[in-house]
């Protein structure tokens, strides 16, 4: 009769130990004495509820052949973090923005400096061994993200998260500022852009609270201060078209110019903003994505290529509904990489193509990250997909034929 009582006491002791350890962990996270958490220097950091699209509405298609593993790695260690890939009106390039703040141009034999966004460049902006080592000086050196050429003038338009919407002439050099605020609210995270035939620019400001070097804070907080804006080429005025967005990112006009599609990264979906017709000035759902997107680009047929940096996980769906759980997790003394793994967001490249009507046409991926570990943008040019990423030190090229 005595042994069950002993087992009972042992169970109680074990439960007490577990409860005590959990209490100590919670206390450590609340105090964070060694400032190891991601939000250690952000006392006002807060998490919010975000309603993700229903799991049942997510596309289930997968690329079982992992087609992107057939991609060719180009320019290895010659470009660091090439987010956006562009070709000029003469078809030359690629041009790409890299982590040290420059826009580079491939002249057929080598990369040369084409443009830069910051007037304050110094030795602190010199190339470094690791892509991640640039983030602390991004606000000084600049960080070109979205790139677009005006096909009529040859001017290159640049979205720099710290210096705003910018433009540089066909000869390159220091870019000039076009816009840095709207409605009296400065841009904090200018991200991507596209131009219409009149030279008006449609672009995204992913957050008015956090800078790009703190992009994980935008992700984990699920704050919705993001905006889509328009720069009027004739008047120089910038207006807000869509507001209260969760990490808006890539933007690309339809082939006929009747609308543009843009990525709402925090919700894993594409939205459509009508520019012409009866619906002009309104926004509607375009497509629900299988994961969290970065940039979007339109090909010559009017189809849309979307780069997805990670598939959506069940855990990410759960965390979206429980902001307090998310806040507890980000206070753990672990690195950003492990924070993402906790959410089930294992990086692997996914490229998805949609019709102008929002129909899923094709999906390509490298689920094991053997060749293309991550994708920020995909540009279709002459039957090939040029794949850039802020996390890679090369550009991957996939032959559609």
From TrEMBL:
The keyword NADP does not apply. It is found in: Vacuole. Its main location: other. Pfam families: SSL_N, Str_synth. Residues 191-278 form the Strictosidine synthase conserved region domain. Keywords: Glycoprotein, Vacuole. Belongs to the strictosidine synthase family. This is Strictosidine synthase conserved region domain-containing protein. It comes from Citrullus colocynthis (colocynth).
């Amino acid at each position: 009769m005595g042994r069950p009582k002993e087992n009972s006491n042992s169970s109680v002791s074990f439960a007490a130990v577990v409860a005590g350890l959990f209490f100590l962990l919670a206390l450590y996270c609340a105090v964070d004495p060694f400032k190891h958490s991601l939000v250690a220097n952000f006392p006002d950091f807060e998490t919010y509820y975000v309603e993700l699209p229903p799991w049942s509405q997510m596309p289930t298609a997968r690329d079982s052949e992992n087609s992107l593993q057939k991609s060719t790695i180009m320019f290895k260690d010659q470009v660091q973090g090439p987010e956006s890939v562009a070709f000029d009106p003469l078809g030359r390039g690629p041009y790409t923005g890299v982590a040290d703040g420059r826009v580079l141009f491939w002249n057929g034999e080598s990369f040369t400096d084409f443009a830069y966004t910051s007037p304050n460049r110094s030795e602190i902006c010199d190339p470094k061994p690791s892509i991640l080592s640039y983030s602390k000086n991004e606000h000084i050196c600049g960080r070109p993200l979205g790139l677009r050429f005006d096909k009529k003038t040859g001017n290159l338009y640049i979205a720099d998260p710290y210096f705003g919407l910018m433009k540089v002439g066909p000869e390159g050099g220091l870019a000039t500022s076009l816009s840095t605020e709207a409605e009296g609210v400065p841009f904090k995270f200018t991200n991507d852009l596209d131009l219409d035939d009149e030279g008006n620019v449609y672009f995204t400001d992913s957050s008015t609270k956090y800078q790009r070097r703190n992009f994980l804070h935008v992700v984990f907080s699920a704050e919705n201060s993001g905006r889509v804006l328009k720069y009027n080429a004739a008047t120089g005025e910038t207006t807000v078209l869509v507001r209260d967005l969760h990490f808006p990112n890539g933007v690309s006009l339809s082939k006929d110019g009747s609308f543009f599609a843009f990525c709402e990264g925090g919700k894993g979906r594409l939205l459509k903003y009508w520019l012409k017709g009866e619906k002009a000035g309104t926004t509607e759902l375009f497509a629900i994505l299988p994961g969290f997107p970065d940039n979007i680009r339109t090909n010559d047929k009017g189809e849309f290529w979307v780069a997805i940096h990670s598939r959506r996980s069940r855990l990410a769906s759960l965390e979206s509904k429980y902001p307090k759980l998310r806040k507890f997790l980000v206070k753990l003394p672990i690195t950003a990489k492990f924070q993402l793994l906790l959410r089930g967001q294992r990086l692997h490249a996914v490229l998805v193509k949609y019709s102008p009507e929002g129909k899923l046409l094709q999906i390509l991926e490298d689920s094991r990250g053997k060749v293309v570990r991550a994708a920020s943008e995909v540009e279709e040019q002459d039957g090939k997909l040029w794949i850039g990423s802020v996390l890679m030190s090369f550009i991957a090229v996939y032959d559609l034929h």
